[in-house]
Design goal:
The chain is mostly helical. A two-stranded antiparallel ribbon has the order 1-2. Strands 3-6 form a two-stranded antiparallel ribbon. Helix 6 runs antiparallel to helix 7 and helix 6 packs antiparallel against helix 9. It is globular. The N terminus is likely disordered.
Length: 617
Amino acid sequence: MNSRTPAPGTAAPDRPDGAVDPSRLPTPGDRVGWAEAPARIRVALGLAAGAAALQVVGWVLGPVADAPPPGFTALPLLVLLALLPPVLAAVAFARGRALFGASVLVGAAALLPGRLLLDAQFLVDPLYASRPEVTVVHSLQPLSAGAGLWPLLLGHVLGLVAGALAFGHRSAEVGTPYAAEFEDPATERAEDPGAERVEAPHSRPMAALVLGGLAGVALLARPYTSDNPFQLADGAMGGRVLPGVGLFALAVLLPLAAVFAATSGYRSVVAGVPTGLLAGVAAVAAPNVAAGLFADGLHVAPGPVVALLFATATLVVAWGVAAGRRLPDSSAKTFDAPATGGLGLHRAAGAVGLVTVAFALIAYLGRQLVLPPELPEPVEYSNRLFLPGALGLAVLSAALLVPALAAAARPAFTVALAVVPLAGVAALDSAVTATEASPLISAGTGALAAGSAIAAALVAAVLAAVAGSAERDDAQDGGGAVDPAGRQVNPVLAAPAAAAALFAVGAFGLPALRAPDFVSPGIWADFRLTSWGLLTALAAVLAATALALFSRPARGAALLLGAALLVGVRALEYPLTAARAEGATPGPGTWLALAAAAALLVAAAVAAAAKPHRRRR
């Protein structure tokens, strides 16, 4: 260290002219610890610790009331698995690796939607949960949810919030190299060595996709084998809907999160996210392996073991890449999406959108229910909305893969994704109702694909939202952004947008068809599982119409077109499903959906013709 180099962790003194002397910036060996980390990351770690504590409380109290004992002494293992992600993140903070700690939380949170669905089966019917670490049943005596289920589920929700906070935090805020100019020396931070950029070979995302995909597929297999006829050992196929959809969600989210890590140019993200993924896979697979080893009448199945091996291989490959050759921060040869103006995120959202379309088509073509051979196959109507929705999403997803069209198509794509829960929740409602009515009926490929489509659509929506944030940041950096405070609502646009919003409330709140002795699910009456899909679609339309009033003309028009696609699919419900009820006639929801679609198209035309309000200088 020469006389002009400050001690690690100290700020570089100012030059007489007030600028930062670039020769006296912190060295690459400096650390970003708890005190220097942004408040958002500290909050994320606190929430993750609270989530782990709630999970521990849930396991101690027990998610099943008055249940038979577990197959082995599982509490120490469950507590260890719950504490593992926040402990790893806290150790990373203590060693000055804030970006690595945040990435661990992101990886662990990526699998929580699937784990939440797996644990939700305790609420529906614990008898079919197939969780020997909680209870091993020896009869068909009904079981009910216990006091520990609520803190357990709340812990998963808090973990998701912690992961979202960590994910939304830009890596540059944790301490990217100090090559940039500083406007205010008081804002300087010590550098996180994990923010160094690493070489990104083009084979890395493919390796992450293959290894993560194989680990996810392995989770779909049987968790163990059972000699106990009352202790079920169902995998994703042939079991109950919620666990099956949860396992499919894990199979989708695991490779997507691995590819996300692989496409980052920062060392801590490349290694941290797979570390959190391995902790999440272990939370699902390790109890099943332990049950096969230590529980009487249960035996180890290859699925969980293979999942752990491939998740470990994903981490080993990631650590090998993270230890590879470092690149200067200005290097363009990386897969980091923010460094490419958000184009990588647009492509990622488009790719996940196509995955969503594939699951939606499988849900449309596949059987929703598997019945015994002696029972006739029913005619299925609940999955028919998948076809028009998948066709619209396929066009928008393909547009995101074209650089010239990606930015214009992104708002419409984000809104149109709500068509997946609109169709998927209705399909799941039918499957859940049928499987609960008879133990001889199980969920088919179509129902499981519907749940997987919903999970993939959620991932695509997050990627599209982050891509929009990156796009706005790039516009601000280039001086081309429009000042939101200076935007004015076009009164000509406000009229059709308000009319469309009012029509949409009736379109999704009132029945799409009417028939004698037939009651459609609704929002204000006969609220059931399908109603959540209607609420999601309505919220998307209302949000799109509100945001369009304050958006740039092209973006506002795209939002309104995406909403028009959504209400258009709602209007198709009557012609596609009228045969399910004798004497069916169009309900008020159908007519109002057509009116909302017309109003949205008019509003989109008005928005596209408007002149943008530029920022005053």
